[in-house]
Amino acid sequence: xxxxxxxxxxxxxxxxxxxxxxxxxxxxxxxxxxxxxxxxxxxxxxxxxxxxxxxxxxxxxxxxxxxxxxxxxxxxxxxxxxxxxxxxxxxxxxxxxxxxxxxxxxxxxxxxxxxxxxxxxxxxxxxxxxxxxxxxxxxxxxxxxxxxxxxxxxxxxxxxxxxxxxxxxxxxxxxxxxxxxxxxxxxxxxxxxxxxxxxxxxxxxxxxxxxxxxxxxxxxxxxxxxxxxxxxxxxxxxxxxxxxxxxxxxxxxxxxxxxxxxxxxxxxxxxxxxxxxxxxxxxxxxxxxxxxxxxxxxxxxxxxxxxxxxxxxxxxxxxxxxxxxxxxxxxxxxxxxxxxxxxxxxxxxxxxxxxxxxxxxxxxxxxxxxxxxxxxxxxxxxxxxxxxxxxxxxxxxxxxxxxxxxxxxxxxxxxxxxxxxxxxxxxxxxxxxxxxxxxxxxxxxxxxxxxxxxxxxxxxxxxxxxxxxxxxxxxxxxxxxxxxxxxxxxxxxxxxxxxxxxxxxxxxxxxxxxxxxxxxxxxxxxxxxxxxxxxx
Length: 536
What we know:
Elements: H1 2-10, H2 14-25, E1 30-31, H3 34-39, E2 54-56, H4 61-74, E3 78-81, E4 99-102, E5 109-113, E6 118-122, H5 127-134, E7 139-140, H6 154-160, H7 167-170, E8 177-183, E9 189-191, E10 224-231, E11 233-234, E12 238-246, H8 249-262, E13 267-271, H9 273-282, H10 289-298, H11 302-315, E14 325-333, H12 336-352, E15 356-358, H13 361-368, E16 384-387, E17 390-393, H14 397-410, H15 412-417, E18 421-429, E19 433-442, H16 448-451, H17 456-460, H18 469-488, H19 508-521
Parallel strand pairs: 2-4, 3-4
Antiparallel strand pairs: 1-2, 5-6, 6-10, 7-11, 8-9, 8-10, 12-14, 12-15, 13-14, 13-18, 16-19, 17-19, 18-19
Helix pairs in contact: 2-4, 8-12, 8-14, 10-11, 10-13, 14-18
């Protein structure tokens, strides 16, 4: 079969395209070795049905435009890839003649402007890289990254959308966006927003129709992000943390909804008993010097830092009842009094839902180490991991959670027979939505995509499990069941990719508009064909 694929490639436009691309980005930045192609043709959930034929890594807007124009001329499909952390088929090749775009070389911070409260970056810049660059200026983006931000790119974050840091107050990555520079499917450069006297200094998003929003959550199907301008806010000088434990998921979700409506939290993060058990197996807070050092560094004095670290070390893993639902909340602001008022409101809301305050260990550690190594993409015993999610309205969250719980109860026998374990992550998005994200662990071995990001020392401690198609099929059915429930509640989704129904869920007028935009920007349908529900 591999011989047949090579024969097809040799009789295709790929050999000539490889030569052209080498002339644009340099020979060392065009790859077609088997290991690289395999890595770029799978995501966290699964191997793709096809293997890319080439990988090209442009280093600038100009190189990116020329690469896409060359692929368009050759009629070759393009799959843009950031860090590779998708689990929805978002960057998988549509066929065996696909060009995979490695965007990680386009990682420069182009302009930091404290005067205009803006930053412009290339799409391959990571959220951690950006946050570290802004810290000396006393600034940050309003939404400042997902927990995967050590590797996750800002271009990927806008293409797939994100939750976590700052999201409870400011919403997702797209809500911090000012302007985009996009390369269309024909290699043309498209710029959005009001852009100053030189036409290349974006400073304000809204100038006529807001077509920057078309490219947020588009999975790279409408254009490839090259340069991104985000607005900035002063880095809040005060923050505080609290954690609470709830007896039921319904109490937890009602409390999260009330906190969201009150707009008193910067971010919220909650788990169910199942995921708590997994996290506590993985955590070793008492002996993790890096973690304790980060907590010390966050405090304003060495004495306070040592006290905070000591409380965490002494608390160890015993601060959460394993059968309860813990909620971790951070508040931030310009004054100690303001943050104190927000924390008082949070405590009152939690108490009203019978939440019991517990040691704020995890909340502190999350803020002290916002971008950890992505070791959690594998289970504590080397199991595979995959989530599925829906963003629902604040009022519908408890009912949606009950529906998912009923699904999982109906599958209990299958889960036990195949050693499938489930958990939940919950978080809030601005004052409008709650994310319900079931996650699954099952005994199947890791693949190259995991090995490329998990810390080598951590990976070495894990057993390499064999393939387990039967267990994977059970997880696939459970994920589909959750997607069906999410659809029944009219949920939104991040990371639409090829997993969640999008185009088919829109009304006739919306589909006509989407198709017209796709035809105008990508007339040959080479940009991520098949994603968002567009045709392959």
